[in-house]
Amino acid sequence: MHIRHLKYFLIMFAVLFFFGGRPTEFGKENTFFHGFLIPNPVIRIGLGANLRDLLIRSSSGMKVYEVNGGYTLLGDDVEEARIKGEREALTEKFVLLVAQTNDRKEAEKIASALREKMSGRIFVEEAREAGSGGVFQVKLGDFLTRGDALVGVGRLNALGIKDVWIVREVVTLEESKPHWILIENALQSLSRDSVLYFIPSHPQSVLSYNGRNYRGILILRSTAKGIVLVNLLNLEDYLKGVVPGELSPDQFGEIEALKAQAVAARTYAVKNMGQYRTLGYDLSDTPSSQVYGGLDAERPLSTQAVDETKGEVARYRGELINALYMSTCGGMTEDVENIFSGRPEAYLKSTECGYEKRPEWQIEGPQSLVPIPAAGRDMSPDLSELISLQVLPFRTDPAFFNEPCPFDEAVAAIRQALRVVGKAGDGFSPQPSELDFPGLARLLVSAFGWQGHVENLLLPSEVNFSLKDVAGVLARDRNNLAYCLQMGIFPFLAAGPQSAGRAVTRAEAAFALSRVLSGYGDPYHKGVFRGAAAGTIEVEENAQRKILRPSQQMFLVRNLDGSRSFAGRLTLLGGERLRWLEREGELPFLEVLFPANTNVMDRSSRFNRWQVRKSREELEAVINQHYPIGSLIDIAVRKRGPSHRVLELLMTGTERQTVARGLRIRTALGLRDILFEVDREYDAEGRVTHFVISGRGWGHGVGLCQVGAYGMAQAGAKYQDILKKYYRGVHIDKIF
Fold this sequence. Notes:
26% of the residues lie in helices and 34% in strands. The longest helix is centred in the first third of the chain and has 17 residues, at 3-19. Helix 5 crosses helix 19 and helix 10 packs parallel to helix 15 (506-518). The protein is globular, with a radius of gyration of 33 Å.
């Protein structure tokens, strides 16, 4: 064979070999695409289907090839290419899910029996939703409108088939096909069945699609779902774009949790390789497979987690597990078969989201203040902060703060406040006077240099409006006092007719300074609690750990959902968010921002507990999207699983009753999870007007709890322990 012909033969062989459903190889050899290296193993990720208008760019040049019975170079060292396809307008169709079973033969038997009783397209399809491997669904359809689908539901109900689920699908009347490509202002027509390859010209060049950067190469081809764009890249590089999308290192910055997520994501990817082989790729970039954000999503900490677990997967009795995971389990995960109606898996059983080896630490606060009211709120936590900042003298008796504030004390406190915000205050030398509200306003405007604010940012009409209920204000003080009122510094004078000439208490002066300081740079350190030893506290700030000593006069404040109170002693589990002040390596003030009052590992998630309130009409509209029950009368729980998730929900309407099961309950009610309780509100005639649904968790509730993994890592667990906690009986193995 001629050398040139041999070259093209080998090229075409490689094309067919790599994109014709070839299983991924986990050898050490590398894959080259016209000189561009992609280390094995490779994976193909679908970035979109039925596309019509695509813009592909390169950071430093790319080659564009058309494959259509030959291998044609359309552009060399190209910066961008725009591909235009053609397709009909989008529309929708509906199918009815009649039954499902783990046995294909049984599903075919059900379908055959149904065909004898009614006409229409009746078929069996394997479920593709996450966790549904080995589930075969019997479906009836297609229906062009929801009304037609409702007629089908009625026909099935007449046959005694009650549990029918309406599935809406977006379709196109004619799938998209490549039409033309624009490369460097040159328009080139394409065959309707062309396959296009976009290959970086240089090892450092990166391709982008619609503004998002991707490693590897891009392939565009026609399929049964129209134009599909595929990103082919190394498996480990793919995971670097998955892990931060599934578990954000910015919010959940624990390396051991991220490593557990990396192993779970790698296992899922390898286990489900080829899931979309008929469309020319392995997995999609959406939550239906795993969220993949490409190169732009990568973060250093999550990349480190991928690198440090390279090639590691989870197996159960030698087989790769179906590594399902969700955001927040709400304290306990569920058996997989209860959620996805698939076969039971010994490693996906209900598990409490706790950590048996979790340590506990006791932190004590020797000082506190009794409640000191000012402006309708307890000022004592704010006073303790000002004391810790040395703006106020160290006093804890409430009578002291309820007394009138002497002029000299106010001046001294203001000077200390200037120091806290980094102002010199050299020109601040006020003459002694009575400390009423106009006098305190003069001090603050002079000390903090607000004269320009008062002159230029305040209208005369605003001054009159702010002071209409305040008596005894001299003309020289009106603007200063109005500015302080408008900025919320003196709420004491805004509640009704007041006299500005009364003495300012120490608590009121302190409140004013607290409001002033809140408008400047935050003097507090922020981080998380890591542990404690005799006389020391270990904290982490900006990924750096340090040891601090509580001072002999430390204020310890508990913050629970914004409600602050002093604590003589707190029990910490590790990972709690902290806010503190430092002075010469000591802690005069420590605030603990508590999550929900529980010991479960996902307690830091805002979805650990949630509540929604829906009117009867709102819930009725959501339910009727899938279950045509008419006007909603009530919903009732019929069955729960080991995690107390609702497994069967009876929905009663004016037209029929029906039962939703498993994960369909979440969709039918529009909830975050199916771990919930229902309360009702009634009108005067005793009819339900609203449903108040209190729940826990976010996701399907099976497998690895991501926020729970974060909590375990905060408590010191290693990634292997985390994986074995949520996937029972697995072992970690390397596949390459």
